[in-house]
Amino acid sequence: xxxxxxxxxxxxxxxxxxxxxxxxxxxxxxxxxxxxxxxxxxxxxxxxxxxxxxxxxxxxxxxxxxxxxxxxxxxxxxxxxxxxxxxxxxxxxxxxxxxxxxxxxxxxxxxxxxxxxxxxxxxxxxxxxxxxxxxxxxxxxxxxxxxx
Length: 148
What we know:
Elements: H1 2-13, H2 24-33, H3 44-55, E1 62-64, E2 70-72, E3 77-78, H4 107-118, H5 127-132
Antiparallel strand pairs: 1-2, 2-3
């Protein structure tokens, strides 16, 4: 199990170029520029861990849930509450189309994630973050990233 985890972590440290994947350090730089380091008490490492456990740094990931809703983008933001996908009922608390959270422009995903984190529960709203990131040492997510 440890060997699998190490291989997985090593692959995350590699530069991913092309496709719908974003490099870990490139994402750290964008998140830093959008003032997410320390936002609501969460470090850049928390945000990187969240992006990894939710989408494996895939900016165009879409996942269907058993309730008929969908999760979108790098942070896997749910259509039932946060964005409108025109496929299922949505509260659309972020006031945006879910498709805006797909692809290379991360600003819609970041703005919506900030809204989610600012509310009740913070990052605990993401089950995968609670299971894999919460209350764990995360500084290694920033290894080799120079935010200058």
